[in-house]
Amino acid sequence: MLHYYFDSYYILLVLPVIIASMVISWRLKSVYSRYSKVHNLRGITGAQAAQMVLNYYGIADVAIVPVGGNLTDCYDPMKKVIKLSDGVYNQSSIAAVGIACHEAGHAAQHATAYLPIKIRNSILPVCNIGSTLSIPLLLIGVILSFEPLVWVGIGFFSFTALFQLVTLPVEFNASNRALDVIESNGLLTFEEKLGATKVLRNAAMTYVAALAVSVAQLLRLILKFGGRRK
Questions:
Q1: Where are the domains of the chain?
Q2: Which of 36, 77, 190, 194 has the highest CB neighbour count under 10 A?
Q3: Active site (catalytic) residues
């Protein structure tokens, strides 16, 4: 029965990617911690920086509010609210400016009808359903030895990887918008902008890592369960 519990596909495919993802996450926290301690020369806070991005794009209907937690910053397109964490909203660090501008970049994407974010939002409901049903359907298919149901479960799981794939250009574009406004408006010096760039690039790599984990998991499911027979 040992072979039943030993998952060689997980060891070979998934575990290395998870370890790499953990390293990337650690790297982000390290870089964020470093540049959250360095204040920008102009003394611009995260909230002020986000407002400058909104002004740059002529956006007047988006609010900027504080939210508790660490690295909990986000943009809520339904409520049109940019939520900035404790370490960003009222802080004048290089990291705060970079992250705040990134979230405001998402608001700019919605305001300018950026195509990838429209695609991501359109497939989100299907991806949520797929991620919820994929594993239960796959397990039921395995228990019943009903291969079509196994493939349905695997197909639903693939929606997770699809969503993360579509998310990549959205996140990179938001960072590029942020850095463009930072440079054009002189929010940070050249050296300070390099620090903000490091923070945003490391944050973007966490999305690359999440996609890699999903693809590895999908490949594992295909190899482990996709070829099962009665």
A1: 2-225
A2: 36
A3: 103
